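User: Show me an example of a complex going from sequences to structure tokens.

Assistant: Sure. Here are the input components:
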Amino acid sequence: MSIDVDTARRVAKLARIKVEDEALPALAAEFSSILGFIEQLNEVDVEGVEPMTSVTPMRLKRRDDVVTDGNQQAAVLKNAPDAREGFFAVPKVVE
Amino acid sequence: MSDLTKLTIAAARDAMRKGELTSADLTEACLGAIDEAGALNAFVHKTPEIAREQAKAADARRGADAPSLNGIPLGIKDLFCTKGVPSQAASNILEGFKPEYESTVTTQLFAGGAVMLGKLNMDEFAMGSSNETSCYGDVVNPWKIDDRNLTPGGSSGGSASAVAADLCLGATGTDTGGSIRQPAAFVGITGIKPTYGRCSRWGIVAFASSLDQAGPMTKDVRDAAIMLQAMAGHDPKDSTSADIPVPDFEAALTGDIRGKTIGIPKEYRMDGMPAEIEKLWADGTAMLRDAGAKIVDISLPHTKYALPAYYVIAPAEASSNLARYDGVRFGHRAKLAHGDGITEMYEKTRAEGFGHEVQRRVMIGTYVLSAGFYDAYYNRARRVRALIKRDFDQVFEAGVDAILTPATPSSAFGLGEMAEADPIQMYLNDVFTVTVNLAGLPGIAVPTGLDAKGLPMGLQLIGRPWEEADLLNVAYSLERAAGFVAKPARWW
């Protein structure tokens, strides 16, 4: 499968990674090469095979629905690039 | 440099228990060796104050019944969150990040008395097979045969280099597609990836959650058993960690493998495989046969499709896991231009913070999960993954105890030599190891020989799920038969 520049631009947008226009053709070529490699999977007969969800047949554990952690506002905000008045600060989202 | 840093974990433990050695002296020797080994670029955040404090505490509890790792100086891969110490996953996007918490694995190691010397270099977010994608720069392999600098492999390249160069007695690694076993083979040490679920993933920066496992990288099989013991166990904070007993791994090392059945998979004999790797494999097979094991030819028919399935599943999970790096809660945020909104903040932050390989994998993952392609790529890859696991299940049901394969398709190559190659050429490094992650099995790399150039080569043993004890014992038998003792000559 060949990936064109428009598709590469759309994927970059979906991934929220800024890619300059001049870098898009090389990126599209890399995607095409990797997807070409992946397409070998089409040779495999997967009829009737369920997609794997868990590598070990293990039932996820359950626990009582109670609060086990919390009240750590300072620790949660400690590494934020911009924290103000107990909140994460970001550029204006809604006009 | 004193010879103390050359000790194995077991030898240092025994000497400390007898009162012949203090952790303080051992730790100082390691700190000195690290300071002299800047050329290897293995340790990227040194923690001498923490190390000296932990060593002092270890010496205070020294005695015949102290835990095995009491006072043992270790290196910790940068992927593990360590409280108050930079934990960056070798990425610029986590620059300045100092976790407010400690990963479960390192919590267990330190509770067992281990000493942290510092954080070890790696490929960015564990994505790479040569340790050339790190924000800290390349790690250099202590093995040198000409004027080139060689790769230690990846992604746990710093761990591999540090253990092989005797900067620490052991190191933590993580393995998503071969990131413990391939670098271990490239530097001539032992590395085990346990069964998926054996070690808690809590507090380890996530790459591909259904494949990631932590494991030890050590100077020999006994040390791997000792260190894995301390790392393993159930953790309520990781719902995929297994709530089953952890056996005594060291006690399982009898070296007696009489009556065991070892499978040799024909699909691992690749076209164009170097004759030296083929010979290494045949020699290893003969060693296990001589030790009393029964050797059988087996088939794992879907092996060929493991790498392409991996390069759908791992990037898909990575694109989801790495969505959290948005410049809001931790790490890097790009400087914004006037009028930039929140979308520009995400896009600029991620473009500046992620390196090229990480960006490529996140975008491939985004593509294979996007509307219209989810079934064709992601679900098909998960179906193929089920078939790969079924191959192994059938072989184990037929009575095979362990499978012997080469660990890598070549010995270590030069740093920069793959720079112009197609990314797929680099991905092929994991061709023998990636099946094990897809099937969730334990796998161990053991050094068994040198190639004609004088570089180490390793073999891989693959075991049944949860049977690391048995696997370690087969590896121990192979190690004793191979008698690999070569060390890199010091040039750094």
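The lines above are the inputs; the final block is the predicted structure for all two components together. The mean pLDDT of chain B is 96.
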